[in-house]
Design a protein that fits this description.
alpha/beta, 2,3-Dihydroxybiphenyl 1,2-Dioxygenase, domain 1, four-stranded mixed β-sheet
């Protein structure tokens, strides 16, 4: 097996409307499809990121909290490429999103920073 690309990243949120607003209106992702699943009392929101990448945003009643150990096994963070890091940081901050200080990747020499979604999931913007 040799996958050709990542199809999607799935995120479970604690407050669907708040997270939907964040990913659509703050980050600017477009909605592909929104589905309400009555048997689960749950939403599934498919979002377009860039030309072909997707995020699936799920809501479930009373999801367990994510362990907060920065070096625990598992997905560490989700990173998005941006053309201009300074403009992207300014836009996030103008919408009330706190960002960490900009750093430089010691291996690639590229600049990046981190911020959090409404559930404190770590997100990164990385200048290409």
């Amino acid at each position: 097996m040799k996958p050709s690309r990542i199809h999607h990243v799935a995120i479970i949120c604690s407050n669907y409307e708040k997270s939907k607003d964040f990913y659509v209106n703050t980050l600017g992702f477009s909605i592909i499809e929104e589905t309400y699943r009555a048997p689960r009392n749950s939403y599934k929101l498919d979002l377009r990121v860039g030309a072909s990448d997707q995020i699936e945003l799920f809501s479930f009643e009373n999801p367990p909290e994510r362990p907060n150990r920065p070096e625990a096994c598992g997905l560490r963070h989700l990173a998005f490429e941006v053309e201009n890091l300074d403009e992207s940081v300014a836009l996030l901050q103008s919408k009330g999103v706190e960002t960490e200080p900009i750093r430089t990747d010691e291996i690639t020499g590229k600049r990046f920073t981190f911020f959090k979604d409404p559930d404190n999931l770590p997100l990164e913007i990385y200048e290409y």
